[in-house]
Design a protein that fits this description.
four-stranded mixed sheet, three-stranded antiparallel sheet, 23 helices, disordered N terminus
């Protein structure tokens, strides 16, 4: 990891009157360069890092085999491709490519979409179906144990079993869930139990409807391009810019339909079918969703469901913020932050919401008192904790906190620990000074003797826009190495693992205990490393 000056040495006089405007101009030029490097509309695809791709390919290879992994790697490295182009680049049969794509789509690792190409007759548009690898969903496969742990803490055993089935199969209909649970036996009470279990998972937002199998992606018009330029620096959220964001946004079901259940259950008394839908959805939007399902010929049993990864990332983000505050400040601040996050959870629509609040002091205190750790807190103690958190206070004593700032502090601490271990305490102090200053800092000056005598100042700054992706890529590299080491240890002791338990005695038992210890250490290290990856990539 290298740290270079953010600009070349610049000649200037030592006058303090000209020094401050010079620094401001340099910072403005650097911000402008960073904005120019950001992806622009319509036709760009931001590829993952090199080790990120290798890590994702290893995950697919270990789960579905080398052939599926090669097709996935082709999409990750080349971007969205048609079926014909995948066959051309891979040099394998069309049927093999088709089967690999079906596996990846079933497991939510590839999203198909249709795109319109200009040219030809105005009335006849040329469309093609392209396939895009969803990098995030591939990496999420390593977090399945974390997802199961969350579900097991909140719901019953039946919900955990059904949830594990969704993780295994990627996406399932209600009919397939019932067949999987009872092996095709017609048992009405069992069917109703499966519907009830699925409803619990949906109500908890752990399961959602699958996206559109093939959304249409229209090329951005000139008017849309001008509108994006006008809103580029405004506070209004701009439209997704990359192809991946545009495709996923077009495929996502509308919010009124995303968690809507339409189950036809048969009552034992009169044998009539009754319709059950998810409560809390507006009547008009619910009716629109019902009509949409009827147009598709769906009675609820053919709707595809999958795990709602967004809900889990939402929870992991909150947990990471609370734990960081607990370590950096104290337990009282962590309790206050957790209360704000729990209260504002229903208000948040996206995983990367930057603010929690505004919430009144009474609302926050009511949530604080629900926990054992918060019952000993007084209002004055709560106010002091909110001030310690840096919350913005409103006129009606309402408080709002910027979660983005907490995440940035956690990221700084993570990189600081890496610098300390790799480069020593002196480098750690220098990096910490530069990262906390968040501006250009003068470190030394020199006198140029060639030509006219003048003084040059060296200005330094941590360029997070380039350093953070580098840190994340190294984390992917480390995660890949840990996975490869686990695979190596298991392959080396494959014969030992296949032995019956009663034959594992003496030296064999010691080897088995050693393997179990090594595997536990490697997998726990991988889980901790994955927390850091989420901090830089998902939060």
């Amino acid at each position: 990891m290298s740290f270079r000056p953010s600009c070349d040495p610049l000649a200037s006089s030592s006058s303090s009157n000209t020094w401050s405007p010079l620094v401001q101009r340099l910072e403005q030029e650097q911000e402008q360069r960073q904005r120019q490097q950001q992806p622009r509309g319509g036709g760009t695809m931001v590829p993952p890092s090199q080790y990120g791709i290798k890590y994702a390919v290893h995950i697919i290879s270990s789960h579905f085999g080398d052939l599926v992994a090669k097709v996935c790697e082709c999409l990750l490295r080349r971007g969205p491709l048609t079926h014909r182009n995948i066959v051309r680049f891979m040099e394998i049969s069309a049927s093999q490519v088709k089967n690999c794509l079906l596996v990846l789509i079933q497991q939510n690792c590839v999203q198909a979409f249709s795109v319109e190409h200009p040219g030809g007759d105005e009335d006849e548009s040329r469309r093609s179906t392209e396939y895009m690898a969803v990098f995030d969903n591939i990496i999420h496969r390593m977090r399945f144990p974390k997802f199961v742990a969350v579900v097991s803490q909140e719901l019953d055993k039946e919900c955990v079993e059904l949830f594990q089935g969704l993780l295994q199969h990627g996406r399932l209909t209600l009919e397939k869930m019932i067949d999987r649970a009872k092996s095709g036996q017609e048992d009405c009470p069992a069917q109703d139990a499966t519907r009830e279990t699925l409803s619990k998972l949906i109500n908890a937002r752990f399961v959602e409807r699958c996206p559109d199998p093939e959304p249409h992606l229209s090329p951005p018009s000139e008017e849309e391009g001008r509108a994006r330029k006008r809103t580029k620096f405004s506070k209004v959220a701009a439209e997704p810019q990359t192809i991946e964001e545009r495709v996923l946004a077009a495929a996502a079901p509308m919010e009124a339909k995303r968690f809507l259940t339409i189950f036809h259950t048969t009552t034992e008394e009169d044998g009539q079918k009754t319709e059950c839908s998810f409560p809390g959805v507006g009547e008009k939007r619910k009716c629109d969703a019902l009509e949409s399902d009827k147009e598709l010929g769906s009675d609820g049993s053919q709707v595809l469901w999958r795990v709602n990864v967004q809900e889990f990332m939402h929870r992991f983000r909150h947990k990471a913020c609370v734990e960081n505050v607990r370590e950096r400040l104290d337990g009282g601040a962590a309790v206050a932050l957790n209360a704000m996050l729990e209260t504002s959870r229903s208000m948040e629509k996206k995983v990367k919401t930057d603010n929690a609040g505004p919430l009144t002091i009474n609302t926050i205190y009511e949530e604080v008192m629900k926990g054992e750790a918060g019952r000993a807190m007084t209002l004055d103690h709560l106010r002091a904790s909110l001030v310690m958190l840096g919350c913005e206070r409103g006129t009606d004593e309402s408080y709002q906190i910027d979660l983005k700032n907490i995440i940035e502090l956690a990221q700084n601490e993570e990189v600081e620990s890496v610098v300390l271990k790799r480069y020593g305490r002196e480098a750690y102090r220098i990096f910490r000074l530069l990262s906390k200053a968040n501006r250009l800092i003068e470190t030394d000056k020199k006198v140029v003797v060639t030509g006219p005598r003048q003084t040059q100042f060296l200005l330094w700054k941590v360029n997070k826009s380039t350093l953070w992706p580098h840190v994340l890529d190294e984390m992917y590299h480390a995660a890949l190495n840990l996975n490869l080491r686990v695979a190596y240890e298991l392959e080396k002791e494959n014969e030992l693992l296949n032995l019956p338990i009663e034959k594992r005695s003496g030296p064999l038992e010691k080897r088995y205990n050693r393997l179990r210890t090594v595997r536990l250490l490697l997998e726990s290290s991988l889980m901790k490393l994955d927390d850091a990856i989420m901090l830089f990539h998902d939060f």
